[in-house]
Amino acid sequence: MKRWLGKAETALGNHSDRLNAINIFPVADGDTGTNLYLTVRAAARALQESPPETSQRASIQLVPAQNDVGAVLAKAGQAAMEQARGNSGTLFSVFLCAAAEPLSGHMRLTATLLAAALNRAQIRAWSALSDPVPGTMLSVMEAAARAAAAVDAAQNGNDSNHALGLVLDAAVEAALEAVVRTEGQLDALQAAHVVDAGGVGMLLILDCLRSAVLGGELQSELLDGLHGYDVQDPHIHADLPDDDGVEVMCTISLSPLDAATLRQRLDELGDSVIMSQVGPSPDQEGRYRWRVHVHVLEPGPALEMIGSLGEPTGVTVSELALPRDPNPVEADVRSLEG
Q1: Are 259 and 275 contacting, i.e. CB atoms less than 8 angstroms apart?
Q2: Model's pTM, two decimal places?
């Protein structure tokens, strides 16, 4: 798992410019590659620090944290969630946190566990968005999960490395096919003759997983022929009109009722609303920590609404018409509201 996220960090760093070039949905701000890279980097670097706490299996058998696949991914996922950038980074963080759950307490990845992890992850990513649409990285996640489940089912519980390899190959192949389909699923992509940038990023991440688990190289030809992805292609997003508004992100502790209220109100104020729990357990007051993402015309009303329900932390506000600052300064909620 550490090798996977390290490979993904490197691959996304190498491909970030091309991903930015074709980033036109949901807004043409040319930062999907950067956002995914920085989010995966946060996950990878979290695993270079202290190991997660010891986990406990259903059999009451203690598993050393550094050998617990689920605990390792959960630690990486939480770090990614706290430092997620943009739609794509936030959705990948949700994917990572959810994938960790079926793997908790297990010291070894198998075909069945991987299929379960991919399925849990794609369901959670779809549900995190208030208005999910096909033709995005969500479709790529779903296709990979469905292919993995089909191949695993045909193995009749085979937990060999060979079966795991078959599932990984099927997931990556299905992800590639889903990326190709994205161009025809969204009008904006079809008009620009490009595939979805987030979908390509997710494809790269899955191929890094295949490479890390099976010990092979990344498939260099994987992205050949994807519309808009050739190196000589221009930055397609630069020719599109600038998008008005800002992206607001923060972390906040809320009760389930307040979280539902916030989602509803943000849906009324803006779009691209993503809300997902950070960590599985509530605090002593029954509140869960949530990562919040929304696109709005002006930050003030959104920040005021968020602040009325709790104390947000890690607040960032970024203009959608400009490339994201790799090291944004946290917003002062009081000054922005003023």
Answers
A1: yes
A2: 0.82
